[in-house]
TrEMBL record:
InterPro entries: Cell_wall_metabolism_enzyme, Dup_hybrid_motif, LysM, LysM_dom_sf, M23ase_b-sheet_dom. The keyword Mitochondrion does not apply. This is Murein DD-endopeptidase MepM and murein hydrolase activator NlpD, contain LysM domain. Pfam families: LysM, Peptidase_M23. Residues 301-345 form the LysM domain.
Amino acid sequence: MKYPLLILFLGIFLSIGLTPANAQIFPKIIKKSNSETTTVPQERRNIELRAFDQDAYLQSLSTITDSLIFENNVNLRKSRSIIAEDQNLMIWAPTNRLIKVSEQIQIDSIWVTAFEYYANWDSKKVDIYNFDVRNFQDTVNVRLYDPFFGYQWKMPTDIMKINSSYGPRWGRMHYGTDLDLNTGDPVYAGFDGIVRVRSYDRYGYGNFLVVRHKNGLETLYGHMSKLIAQVGDEVKAGDIIGKGGSTGRSTGPHLHYELRYRGLAFDPELVYDFPNGKIKFQDYQITPGTFNQVVQARTAAYHRVKRGDTLGGIARRYGVSVSTLTRLNRISTRTILRIGQNLRVR
């Protein structure tokens, strides 16, 4: 070729053009040898790096765990009510550690308000449900125990002798079954549950506990010499929760044992065969007839004050609040009751 330099010059000129606007940029070619591999850095675009959101993670974990604790297909945005509970469901919180702080409970690291978990929760009062049995027309099946889910039962005492049964006694309603024991004997939790009330009633239960159960029932243990369980403790059936005694309104060592549904006590002998140390059924059906004696006891419009009576004790007997008694009788909580005085209860 005659003019190699001229041809090379024209080729370069035509490829780059006369102005920068016509310039073309070609990709850079990197040759790789067999003995060495060179890595080409690549820029990743449109990728947003975010820090770990701990609060969102814990909230999601709490929601998922709450779903397991409550029920399948639970609507966490809707508050539960006692009547809406499935009494056949025995799924319990997967822990033996439950702490009560103020009016909340802690299940491991998952916090839920006591209202959300139990529909009603109060560590001071025995009856907190305001349940009007006159309007109760349902039949509720209560699963008392279920070995499949590890939900057991236990007699509350080692001695099964009945000293006094449920029903009218000495002119007033006796809301439990009195079981014989000796001072210092162990008192056991009847079912798996959580202690809701730990208190002392000088003119009534003495040292007593109320335990809330997942099946919708509550049990009350009265006249104990020593209380072992604390409010918020998660107890299993058979756990020792106190020691037997004769505190409060008592004539000798015994355990006053109550079964309650929505705050109303019913006859424990409908469920237990105390002399033989057995529970009669795995499932018990609660009907309006379960509370017939309660309805009869509440028909009285006036109560005649006896020695040892208090406004609190009278209120519990007739299923009304102390504020109702003070309002109906135009008295205050500081009023001294006189023996023989008639108090209007409704």
